[in-house]
Amino acid sequence: MLRYVTTNPGKVREARARLPAVEQLDFDYPEQQHPDLDPIAAAGARAAYRHADAPVLVDDAGLFVDGFDGFPGPYSSFVEQTVGVAAVGRLCARELDDLDAAFRCVLGYCDGEALDAPRVDAGGDDDPPVALFEGRVAGHVVPPRGDGGFGYDPIFETDGATYAEMTPDEKNERSHRGRALDAFADWHEG
Ligand code: ITT
User: Fold this and answer.
1) What is the pLDDT of residue 61?
2) Over 90: is that where the pLDDT of 170 sits?
3) Closest C-alpha among 150, 105, 108 to residue 4
């Protein structure tokens, strides 16, 4: 059994559509402060593996706004909880001419063994390695539209629709998480 480590039920719903056998492990691992998602996912996967003593998959995601040099990026969770998603949309519209952005998701897999994967964070001497899989989708920040999804979905538009206007299947087919899950599943099942 594979544990999908997150406190966010929206992520689990999307992961289950691609990996039906995953179980949520509601473990709030300490998130490193880092400008990139990779080290956060790697440290989180190690902490979760040590906690569960079983194979784990950690999911770290964020909205990277080009005109703000990638902000909120790795700080997306803190910014959602403090400023709020609608305010991020208004701030972008007020301050930026170019509303290009990308949603990114990095999955970190750790099972305590050596891993033969395309991208592996080896860690330190006593650390188990972590395999990393990324999905990235380009789009724009827009005024909120749609009732579906969670988090930043209403203000992130790609292919003419916000994630919140898509059905769960439509979002999963093209989303950052769907792509990262595909890359992980191809490796894990292959
Ligand atoms: P965990 O760390 O427990 O997994 P979290 O929601 O804090 O839960 P992240 O740090 O990865 O997870 O999330 C960063 C923020 O981005 C957070 O505010 C999420 O709601 C949001 N987010 C993540 N994936 C998203 C998606 O697919 N669509 C919209 N918002 C998303």
Assistant:
1) 98
2) yes
3) 108
> Which residue among 3, 11, 176 has the greatest number of ligand 1 atoms within 8 angstroms of its CB, and so is best to mutate?
11
Predicted confidence band at 190 (pLDDT cuts at 50, 70, 90)?
confident
Listed by start position, the domains of the chain span 2-189
Of the candidates 86, 90, 134, 89, the residue with the CA atom closest to the CA atom of residue 108: 134
Give every CB contact of residue 84 below 8 A, 6+ residues apart in sequence.
Answer: none
In the block, residue with structure tokens 């289950």? 16
Is the pTM higher than 0.85? The answer reads yes
CATH topology of domain 2-189: Maf protein (3.90.950)
* 28 is an active site residue: no
- Tell me if 163 CB under 6 Å of ligand 1: yes
Please state, in angstroms and as integers, the Cα–Cα distance from residue 86 to each residue in 34, 104, 105, 142, following that order.
24, 19, 21, 10
Bridge partner list, 131: 109, 120
The pLDDT score that the predictor gives to residue 31 is: 80
